[in-house]
Amino acid sequence: MIDFKRLKDDFHLPEGVTYLDGNSLGPLPKTAAARMAAVMQAEWGDMLITGWNRAGWMDQPRRLGDRIARLIGAEPGHVVLGDTLSIKVYQALAAALALRPDRKVILSDTGNFPSDLYMAEGLIRTLDRGHELRVVAPDKVSDHITDEVAATLLTEVDYRTGHLHNMAQLTEKAHNSGALAIWDLAHSAGAIPVDLQGCSADFAVGCTYKYLNGGPGAPAFIYVAPRYADRVDPALSGWLGHAAPFAFDPRYQPGPGIERMRVGTPPVLAMAALEAALDIWDRVEMDAVRARSIALSQRFIERVERACPTLTLASPRDPENRGSQVSFRFEHGFAAMQACIAQGVIGDFRAPDIMRFGITPLYLDEADIDRAAAVLAKVMAEKQWENAEFQQQGRVT
Ligand SMILES: *Cc1c(COP(=O)(O)O)cnc(C)c1O
Questions:
Q1: Using CA atoms, how far apart are residues 77 and 115, in angstroms rounded to an integer?
Q2: For domain 4-30+286-390, is the CATH number 3.40.50.360?
Q3: Tens digits of per-residue pLDDT, 82-104?
Q4: Structure confidence by residue, pLDDT tens digits, 25-38
Q5: pTM of the prediction?
Q6: How far is the CA of 190 from the centre of ligand 1 (A)?
Q7: 32 Cβ contact list (under 8 Å, min separation 6)
Q8: Which CATH number fits domain 33-281: 3.40.50.1820, 3.40.50.2000, 3.40.50.261, 3.40.640.10?
């Protein structure tokens, strides 16, 4: 049994804030500040350059990768951290296309996060070999997996609606058509149980600053299935993916397995904060998190639907088809969310009309859900979105 009450106590949550935006940026683990301070003083400060060996900085991207592997059903030794998710999307896609040189179609869906699509388009331009990015409705992906498709590039959980793709089925269909399956786990890792190995996924990527609570700008991760790990040709052939970085060989030779997906110097300080978050995740089973996420989500949907008839549920009603977020459509969603935030209930807004609430059982309980629903109900009943102060947009929504 997981003691969720104790887990919540492991996070710093500001007084008066009910935080339903851990799907964008997870909160601070209480031990992270001390952990970072120790790395700064005892490692960077006192060890200087020797920290790469003595403090194990160079192995950190693999060590932390193994801890994430447990959460996403990956084989140990096949996940590595570094860079940002957009970069990891590019690497995975480039590797997949090189494994299917005779095919030209990358299949994605309209629910995918724009950066994934932008990176695919950029890669297509760079390769200049006539590839096509085919973007179809999320429920039509399966129908479009044909023998033209080199790779599917799908985000398992839709960032706006929370719609959950069936990873096992779509991967199987891709394989039956001779295509490779790349999964973006941005809204899956730490949100729902993932079984990369069981689904035979070929590549997976994700970030660590959302559900995993690694902190703003925490590094991304990439998984390459063992059957391809020693075969993929790295498009971003940086020195730390080289077989012998310190041989300073002018010719690039890829390192063994997942090591070749490293690019440059790892973000040691950022990984210290992530490590503190992973200390918490090490104590957690994803099945229990999922069960509690569903219970809290159902509670939130019931309360909001009862009190706010003008909001339309944008997320799938069946929890089996939903990740760990609940979204509602509302024309004035941006201002309504600003009004909620002004009253300490933090969710976010995704254009054009989605109010999004992340359900994160590590630090949310029934009282938080009830408070969030009550504040939202008040905002709606009083039409607080009409207030001009809530209509000002910052750079980040
Ligand atoms: C959050 C998110 C990103 C962000 O990419 P970064 O390079 O980390 O900024 C990319 N793709 C998806 C699907 C996301 O949800």
A1: 27
A2: no
A3: 999 999 999 999 999 999 999 99
A4: 999 999 999 999 99
A5: 0.98
A6: 15
A7: 215, 272, 273, 276, 277
A8: 3.40.640.10
